[in-house]
Amino acid sequence: MYEDPVKEMLLWMKVLLLTAFILLGVRQFLFEPVIVEGGSMQPSYHENDKLVLSKATQIDNFDTIVFRAPDGNRFIKRVIGVPGDRIEMSGGEIVLNGQVLHEPYLDKAKNDGITGQPPMASEFSVPPDCYYVLGDNRGDSTDSRVLGFIQKQDVIGEVKFRFAPLRDFGFVE
What we know:
Its EC number is 3.4.21.89. The active site is at residues 40, 77. Keywords: Hydrolase, Protease. By secondary structure, this protein is an alpha+beta fold. It has two helices and twelve strands. Helix content is 17%, strand content 32%. It is elongated.
């Protein structure tokens, strides 16, 4: 059947090894699957939602990111401020660069604006290479109000796709 079984086996080993290197490279530098833990991003994301992060992306206001917190845990939060943004938090409202934020992703029945935890300051600017992040479930979220600014190098990636549960399958907005 085969001319030389050893050559055939070596050829298949090369193919499998190359495939493994490509998959590891894609996971390391382009995409990574994650599972949501906790309820700090409800109603947008729930416990055990399965997501795909893009590691090669530009982070903008209102993107959802996963990052490493100072204690080593991974958190998923929404970016409210990017470098240079001016944020004012008062009376349950967030003012971003002079405009009151309209936040349709919040569950208004559960959230009392920013009053769930004390703000870091009433008015501040986001420093270079940092982000200001908040959970969508503001009353139950460890976010920049507690952690401070998130360093750019601590960002693992931006949420781009949800593959479970199946009722929410698809690209995220």
